[in-house]
Each structure stands twice: as C-alpha cells, then as structure tokens.
C-alpha cells in the first residue's frame, strides 16, 4: 500500500501570545511561551514532512487559513478543526481523511518536538496489522494516535476525560471493549509545563539515544539556548 493511502493529520494553533501554552506562560511569560510553541510546531512538522507521507494541517479557528499557510508553507493541505471538544475534532478529522480515501491515518498535536520520524513510520507499519496505534506521553495521554479505515472505534473520542492522566488507559479500555487490536509504540514526551520543559532539556543534555538528540528539534533548542536554558 503506497503513501497515497496514508495521511498525517497535524493539529495546530496560530502561535499567538496568550492563546497557546498557557501553563508554560505562567513561568516563561506569554510572549516566550508563544515563541517556544512556534518552534515546537515547526520542528514537529519538519519531522512529519520528512516521512514523505502527505500532511494535512488541521487548524484551530484563529485568524484565517491563509495565516496558517503563510506561517507553515503552501506545500500542505489546510482545514479547520471542527467540533465542540478535542474528541469531536479528532473524530471529524479522521472521518474526513477516510472519506478522502485514506486507509491508514495518523494524528498528532504540535507540542511534541522530539517526535521521531521512525516513530511515525512505525505507526503506519503497525496499522497494516492493527486497528489502532499510539505513542503514549508520560503524562498519561498520548502524543500520536493512528487508525485504519476499517478499525476506527468512535467511542474512544466521545465523553473522554481529556487533559487528565487517565486518557490513554481509558482509550485502551474502550478499545478492548470493542475487541479492537492496537499497537503501543515508545513514549513521546509532550511539553505543556515548566517541569516537562526541564525534563526535555535534561534529556537532551544527558541522554545518549536518538530520542533525546537536539537534532530532533533544532529550532526549539536554538531558542532555549538563546534564553539560557
């Protein structure tokens, strides 16, 4: 199955001060938090693009789609996120991809700058044999979720306790209830708080694996170094 049957959905916001990374903003200030989010998103999108799989940028309704295109480039497809909460928006994005004829679809947000190209490719490989695939995050959620067209379980998006430590566990429980098969890949940390940012910097300083390499997020680490982190 070629890449034309696959698609990456990239959830993103415009990097406006006071509108993104509000928990980080309490410690860094709204301006710096927005600049860091901008770098996170650009680093992660570069990783996704490097897979060679088509990327569709799913935009929070802020500004215009032209604003997103001006920021991220016109080589991508852009659409608005539609829905009353995160689960509804994710479900709508998956539904849209499958209506376009995609067979394997992976969705990720824009706050996991250390996401690896290999992790994304492994996710698509897993969907050849599994209904779903995840890269969990250390906070109890997940940084990446993927489904194949024949295996989408709508219940995992509905009335989910989003932004809590039980999201991934509850997702797996519901998949098990539906006898859906799924694969779990290595963790990919996301960064929402100063503590998580500190762990990201420490892992890059002391880690010795590709997962912790600064090369995964050059824009982000350049900015952090400029600020003295």
What does this structure look like?
The protein is α/β, with parallel strands linked by helices. The protein has a single domain, classed as Spore Coat Polysaccharide Biosynthesis Protein SpsA, Chain A (Alpha-Beta Complex), CATH 3.90.550. Helices cover 40% and strands 16% of the residues. The protein is built from 8 helices and 7 strands, in the order E-H-H-E-H-E-H-E-H-E-E-H-E-H-H. The protein has helices spanning 22-28, 30-49, 65-72, 86-99, 117-126, 167-177, 194-206, 218-226; strands spanning 6-12, 55-59, 77-80, 104-108, 132-136, 142-148, 182-184. It has a 7-stranded mixed beta sheet with strand order 3-2-1-4-6-5-7, with helices on both faces. Strand 5 (132-136) and strand 6 form a beta hairpin. The radius of gyration is 17 Å and the shape is globular. The model has no long low-confidence stretch (mean pLDDT 94).
């Amino acid at each position: 199955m070629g890449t034309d049957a696959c698609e990456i959905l990239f959830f993103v916001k415009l990097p406006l001060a006071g509108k993104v990374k509000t928990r980080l903003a309490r410690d860094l200030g709204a301006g710096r938090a927005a600049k860091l989010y901008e770098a996170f998103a650009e680093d992660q999108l570069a990783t996704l693009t490097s897979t060679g799989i088509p990327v569709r940028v799913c935009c929070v309704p802020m500004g215009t789609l032209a604003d997103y295109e001006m920021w991220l480039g016109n080589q991508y497809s852009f659409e608005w996120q539609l829905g009353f909460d995160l689960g509804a928006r994710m479900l709508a994005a998956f539904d849209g991809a499958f209506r376009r004829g995609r067979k394997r679809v992976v969705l990720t947000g824009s706050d996991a700058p250390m996401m690896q190209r290999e992790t994304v490719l492994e996710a698509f490989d897993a969907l050849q044999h599994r209904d779903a695939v995840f890269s969990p995050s250390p906070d109890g959620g997940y940084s990446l979720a993927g489904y194949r067209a024949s295996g989408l379980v709508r219940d995992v998006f509905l009335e989910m306790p989003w932004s809590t430590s039980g999201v991934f566990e509850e997702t797996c429980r519901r998949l098990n209830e539906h006898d859906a098969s799924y694969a779990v890949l290595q963790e990919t940390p996301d960064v929402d708080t100063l503590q998580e940012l500190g762990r990201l910097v420490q892992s890059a300083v002391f880690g010795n694996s590709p997962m912790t390499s600064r090369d995964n997020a050059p824009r982000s680490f350049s900015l952090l170094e400029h600020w003295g982190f």
